[in-house]
Write a structure and sequence with these properties.
6-stranded parallel β-sheet, 2 domains
Length: 331
């Protein structure tokens, strides 16, 4: 009898990737101070890349994918983390270099874990996941650079995706006028329901950018990169800030120095994977107070973990709205 089961990524002798639901025991887990019974996980862009093999994000084989998980502590050798505690994990290379969350059980260093705020259930924590946690890091970055609701509109690109949906909800709740950019204009009612004041077609931003364009927004959260980020920068108000956290269009940035030296625009990079514990705790504390539960529910779909490999291609193709939570089977 196995102790638990998990989705396992393997490669054959020819380098072809396979995905299978595998029976494992605790000896298969990697080193760590805390073992967690995982109840919920989710899917992010990076998870979809791993499941499909579309990009070489996995750097250890075999690998259990899943960069997020929530669950209950099964055993602990870390001070301050006790058996029965509810915890959440985002990033730290889990699902890439360390066995991840698409599993009934996980073992990780204790300092990678954050205690689940009382305001959230494990399902809600994974509705937030790395996407929502990253969105909060972006909002905190804008705040650190002095952006306020009175400065003018804030643009969110990739707004119907996971990061974008939560960013729209958070910014609107804080009183900002939010411009939501999406390639799925049929999602306008959904985005307005999250708090967007207006919705624009991503085609306005996806082509080659001029060095400077008309000033349209005081700040932005960019989940897309490439030409889109270049256009975002070109259209940012004097002294504005752009928090960049994604690369859905590409890793390149075909821009110029004009927004920086002629308008004093700040490009603030946001990394969620290796963010220090203090910033993680700040983000989760703010999510617990700032994120509207109704908006989170509207952005969330709940599915069984068995569907993860089937959903991954749809996410990469931009056909998934908001957030998908996976319930981990407990048999």
């Amino acid at each position: 009898m196995s102790d638990f089961s998990a989705w396992m990524l393997t490669r054959d002798e020819d380098g072809h990737q396979q995905v299978r639901w595998a029976a494992l025991d605790e000896a298969d887990l990697m080193d760590g101070d805390v073992t967690v019974d995982v109840s919920h996980t989710t899917i992010n862009y990076k998870d979809a890349l791993a499941l499909t093999g579309a990009s070489p994000v996995v750097r250890r084989w075999p690998m259990i994918p899943g960069i997020d998980f929530a669950g209950t502590v099964r055993s602990s050798n870390t001070a301050g983390i006790a058996v029965g505690d509810r915890v959440v994990l985002n990033g730290w290379g889990v699902g890439e270099t360390h066995l991840g969350g698409y599993s009934q059980r996980a073992r990780v260093p204790g300092d990678w874990l954050v205690g689940l705020p009382a305001a959230f259930s494990p399902e809600q924590a994974m509705a937030i996941g790395t996407a929502g946690y990253t969105a909060m890091l972006c909002v905190l970055s804008l705040e650190r650079h002095g952006v306020t609701a009175g400065d003018g509109p804030v643009l969110v690109t990739g707004a119907a995706g996971g990061v974008g949906s939560i960013a729209v909800a958070l910014l609107a709740a804080a009183g900002h006028e939010v411009i939501a950019s999406t390639g799925r204009t049929e999602e306008e009612p959904y985005l307005r329901g999250l708090g967007a004041a207006s919705v624009i077609d991503r085609a306005e931003l996806s082509g080659p950018a001029r060095p400077l364009a008309k000033e349209r927004w005081a700040a932005a959260v960019d989940c897309v990169g490439s030409h889109t980020l270049a256009n975002v920068l070109a259209g940012t108000h004097y002294g504005g800030t752009v928090a960049a956290c994604g690369l859905a269009q590409g890793m390149d940035l075909p821009s110029s120095v004009a927004p920086f030296i002629l308008r004093g625009v700040t490009l603030a990079g946001v990394d969620s994977v290796m963010a220090p514990a203090s910033r993680r705790h700040e983000a989760w504390e703010r999510l617990a107070t700032d994120l509207d539960a109704g908006a989170l529910a509207a952005a969330t779909t709940v599915r069984p973990l068995s569907e993860a490999p089937d959903i991954a291609p749809d996410l990469l193709a931009g056909r998934v709205r908001g957030r998908v939570v996976f319930v981990v089977p407990q048999d």
